[in-house]
Write the structure tokens for this entry.
Amino acid sequence: MHDILIKNHNSVVGKNDYNIMCSSDGIGVVSISDDADDFTRLSAITAWLTSTPFEKFGGKPFTKEQAIGIIGNISQESYRGNPKAIQGDHSMTKWENTTNEMVLAWGNAGGKAIGIIQWDGGRRVQLVNFAISEGTQWHDFNTQLKFFKKELDGAEGQNLINGGFNDLTKTIADYVSIFNLKFERSALSGTEEGDRPRIQYAMDFASRYTDGSGLAMNCIGGSVNTSNLIQLAIASSYTAAERNSKAYGFGNCGSSLENCGQVS
């Protein structure tokens, strides 16, 4: 699954099938093909959720159980986590002719949700403006994940905490319900009817998903775990100062995290 490329002192790349590197701002990058199947796409999101540090949650990634609770919601919202999803577009073709500017022209109108979270209204506008600032389109997978992190690191993450999402004693079903009520805020959130299909999606995924550690690599913090081959290669090729230098393309994801592939 893993490829390690050491070209020279200026290029160390760690790669696997899902998260191939960390961006310069320290956020893991998911890389899957456009025609990836639903399980692969959801697995990639889960790997990202369990390897990305979130400030509101103590600078740590989500647990597998928390991540699967989120996956249950994403599965229900966006055709199993498809970043190109537009509310009501069952054919999944409208995205091709729906640019950032066109989405902004919708204003804050509801009922026009987009992306893996199905952002709507003002949050949809914020996503598109974020994509423009990144030089990408709203349907770019990694742009949506970066915006997702931005929300989780801010007020939306606090909403989840207020609902008990940071309580590690809760079940997957609990996390599904909390995420639906406090983050998605779907029409039927807070009801058994609204949570039931999301919980079923989560449980179905949980029955197949095993270990996220083989699917994503964390960004480097202060120390290097040389038991990992990627970390060993980086430790051998760079000084600590260079590893933490933006000039070399390395992100700094927090000192508690290890095992991140690097930007070449």
